[in-house]
Amino acid sequence: MKKKNLRLLAIIVFAILFAACNRGASSSDTPATATPTQGTVDTGSATETPAATETPAATETPSTEDSGGTETPAAGAKIEIDPASLGDVEISVWYYDWGAVYNNSWSAPAEGFMELYPNITVNMMPMGFTGGATPFHETLLTAITAGTGPDICINVLDWAYQEDLLIDLLPYMSDEDLAIYYPVASQHQMREGKLYGLPFDLSAVGILMYNRSMFAEAGLDPDRPPRTLDELSTFADAMFQKDANGDYTKVGFYPYDEIFMQGGLHYLGTVFGTTQWTEDGELNILSDEMIKASEWYQGWGTRYGYEDLLTWCNAQPQPNQAFLGGAVGMIWNYSGFVNSVSMMNLPFEWGIAPFPSDKPGWSAVFAGASPFSVFNYSKNPEAAIAFLKYHCGVGGQMISLQNLPTGGSFWVSAVPEVNEFYGPQLHPAVEAMFLDIYSVFNSYIPGPAKYRDINDDLGNAYRLIMSGEGEVRQTLQDAFNAVTANPVN
Question: Which of 207, 209, 211, 210 is nearest to 347 (CA)?
Fold first, then answer.
């Protein structure tokens, strides 16, 4: 394997980290089936349905680059792997440690695979995930540098693709292999005509989650959530409340929710019909839409007090998920959080809808998927690829869901067949979300990487905008200059 530049640039860029990376809400609540009145869904703000994303063609020309020992096929040919013929081999898989419930779900498919192919030992290794991506990926980069990295890992596609560390899986995927996935999920793993990961789950990112009880108390119609950004502001104004000391007791819209902040400028841009990157990998933060989005976001802190909102949030029982306390009217979130909340017995009624967008004909809801990828330094790449196809396929995902409580009702597979099998067990509001909202979501697929060391520059710009410390245009210009001064080549 050629020498890789493994600088800490690789630690997940805000724009690339999808909320799908976070499976659900951390809560001390005992999971319980929510009543049907909790978790209603409104799709009135859904805009025209975007054109369907095509499934990657299995006949695309496969890579001819070295991939850690895998054979190089002729153009258009497909490589078939017989796991039983590989001899006694061992592979390792890294994934986020989200606790015993999820760990059992992740590891169960490995047991099924090893029963079929006892010659292949699969070591499933949950690695620390402490509320952010940095600890996990720092550990991963250290291991790769030391030559002890895993064969397979979750959610490394974008930075590992930039560093040329991944195997193109397309030569090993037949039309039938690809056809099992939602097209948006498989397409999400494509970069420049090559397939660098297989999706495991699927998320809708950009969900407006709202407190129906607070709506009713403020004289708002709980069945009619905001459908424009102007309505979002008006509805929020009606729900903000302060006590005699001037401290917030209720917050109409909390713009600093942890999930929204993880997406940084990219998530912010989607609300205004744009993305942080163009399809060809150029930085897009100086566009009129991104400037307008940043000014809109900064305006919340200006109007309601950035520090005052943070002080209020930090005083909540669960600061990272203040919505669960019942004193937040609306938040921006994603389907994984909604699924988890649907399992909780919260003391208030809630609902979901697509987050409003400033751009006519545009849905602010977009797709996210958690992929697993195979590193090209793997000593047993064929075994790793064979396991990955099983793990992310129908068989593996069925086993995974069987090892989740209630049959996986807070998790959505990237494989329609799996969801169809478990669908009747979904909470009604969650089921409605996937039937209705999923019909309008977009897919954000970043273009080829052109710049390095972008995390600090873009993240700092986002923080300056959010806090009001930076004038929007100058802050974005400074970030643009810093990022584009450090191209890949």
Answer: 211
